Amino acid sequence: MARPRSLRSWVEEKVIQLVKYIYHAKYDDKELKEVIKAMVGDRKLRQTLTNVIIPSFDVKLLQPKVFSTLKASRDDLEDAPLLDVCLSTSAAPLYLPLHIFETKSANGGSREFNMTDGGVAANNPTLLAISEVSKEMGLDIGKASDQCLNSKGSSKLLVLSLGTGSTKRHNNLQVTNSNWGPYEWLLQGLHIGSIPIVDVLMTANDAIADIYLSDLFQATSFKDNYLRIQTDTLTMTEAAMDNSSTDHLENLEKIGNELLTKPVSTVNLATGLLEATHNGAVTNEAALKKFAKRLVDERRRRRQAQRST
C-alpha cells in the first residue's frame, strides 16, 4: 500500500511548480517542432506553393517581423526555413518558449531572430496582407474612395478574413472603480481565465484592423470585396488556447460549422459586437460560395489572357 504523502512533500512540489511557471514557458516546443518538421521538412520560405505573409515579433528589437514569400525570393537573409517561421509565429508568450534562430546569405551575411507569437503585433494580419499585395500592385490603398479604387485597380482586391473567435459577449470583468492598479490589470480576471491588460491589448489590436477595413470597403462601392467571418460568442472555456482534447476540438469544429449558417456580420463600432448585415438574409456559406465563384472566374480570365499573348 502506498504511503500517504507528507505535507512537506506536497508543499515542495507546489513550490517547484510555481517556480517553473514563473521562470519558464508553460510548455516546451519539442513535439511541436517534430510535427512541423514532418510536414515541411527542410523547405524554405521562398518554396511555398503560394505567396504567404506570416507575422511574428522580435523581442530583442521590439519590432514586428513579417515573413514574406516575396521578400524571401529577393533576399537570402529573409529566406528562413519554414520550420523556423512556423515556430516563430506560434511562440505564444507564457505558453511556448521564444524561438531563436539565424539565417545566412551566400555572401557571408547573417541575421539573428528572437521571435514570439505574431499575434502580439498583428492579431488580425489582414492589413499586412493588403499592404503587401498593394505594394506589388502599385496601389495607394490609404485613399479609400471610389475614384481611387477605380483608377488604381483596388477593386480587384478580394479580402477574406477568418477570425478565430472571441469572448466579447461573455466578458464578465467587473469595473467597480477607476483606480486600477496591478491587481486589477493583471489578476482580477484569473478566475475566469483572463488577464485584463493582455485582453485589452490583443482586442485593441484586432479591433483597429477591423475598424479600418470596414471603413475602407464600406465607404466604397466595393463593400462586397471584404468578407470577415468571426464569432464573438465563445465562452472562456471554448476560447482556451491550450486545450487540445478531442471533445474540445470537436466542439470547435461544431461551432465553425454552425457559423456557416449564420448571417454575414460586421462590427458595430460603438459596441464592438458583431451585427448581421443585409438584414440577415445572406449567410456566411452563401458569401463564401460567391467569393469562390469570383476567384474561379478570375482564374479563367487570367488563363485566357495568357493564351492570347
TrEMBL record:
<dbReference type="InterPro" id="IPR016035">
    <property type="entry name" value="Acyl_Trfase/lysoPLipase"/>
</dbReference>
<comment type="function">
    <text>Lipolytic acyl hydrolase (LAH).</text>
</comment>
<feature type="domain" description="PNPLA">
    <location>
        <begin position="1"/>
        <end position="130"/>
    </location>
</feature>
<protein>
    <recommendedName>
        <fullName>Patatin</fullName>
        <ecNumber>3.1.1.-</ecNumber>
    </recommendedName>
</protein>
<feature type="short sequence motif" description="DGA/G">
    <location>
        <begin position="117"/>
        <end position="119"/>
    </location>
</feature>
<dbReference type="GO" id="GO:0047372">
    <property type="term" value="F:monoacylglycerol lipase activity"/>
</dbReference>
<dbReference type="InterPro" id="IPR002641">
    <property type="entry name" value="PNPLA_dom"/>
</dbReference>
<keyword id="KW-0442">Lipid degradation</keyword>
<dbReference type="GO" id="GO:0004620">
    <property type="term" value="F:phospholipase activity"/>
</dbReference>
<dbReference type="GO" id="GO:0016042">
    <property type="term" value="P:lipid catabolic process"/>
</dbReference>
<keyword id="KW-0378">Hydrolase</keyword>
<keyword id="KW-0443">Lipid metabolism</keyword>
<dbReference type="Pfam" id="PF01734">
    <property type="entry name" value="Patatin"/>
</dbReference>
<comment type="similarity">
    <text>Belongs to the patatin family.</text>
</comment>
